[in-house]
Every structure is written in structure tokens, then in C-alpha cells.
Amino acid sequence: MNHPTNEGRHDDDAALSDFLASLMDYTPTIPDELVEHYVAKSGFQCPDVRLIRLVAVATQKFITEVATDALQHCKARQTGAVKDKRDKQQKDKRLTLTMDDLSKALREVSGRCLNHLHP
Question: Exposed, middle or buried, 58 (CB in 10 Å: 0-12/13-18/19+)?
């Protein structure tokens, strides 16, 4: 089992400090007030705006992954459904996202998140 050296730990601490400091200059898509509301609703009080923004960034990443995966499911489903209707495909290129697409994406992304927590 590899034990981190003091120098390696110092580098990690410095990188974490730099990252947290950069959050002060970053405006996440999800407003601080919304994150603060849900964090407080869960019973956690956090006066540090850096941590609030870290939660916002993690939430934004999660939502982006779900939306991207749902789009892929939607495209795959509609590509398969339109193969018989080539003429209609040329006229109507809009995608229709369904709850099934979203549900599949949520299961996949949640599974990946859990795999990172419990390898």
C-alpha cells in the first residue's frame, strides 16, 4: 500500500487551496442562494461560500451528465423509430425527450457516481 509523502500531501493541499480560492471568482450556473436553501433544508449550515459553490459545481456537473446521456438515449430511440419513415426524417429533425430517456440517463449517471464512491 502506497503512503503519500509529506511533499505529495503538501502538493495536494496546495492544489485544493488554489481550487477553493478560484471558486471565489467563479459564478456558477446554480445561484448561491438556491444551493444555500437546499443545503440548509438538509440540515447543514455552511457560512463558507467556497463550499456552497463547490456544491453548485458538482450539481451542475451531475445535471449536465444526465442531460447529455438523456439526449443520447433520445437520439438512439428516434433513430431506430424513424428508419422505416425516411421521408419524415428529412422533414422533421426535432428530438422529443421522454421520461424513459431521462430515467435511463438518471440510472446510468447515478450508477457511475456510486461506483466512484464504492469502487
Answer: middle
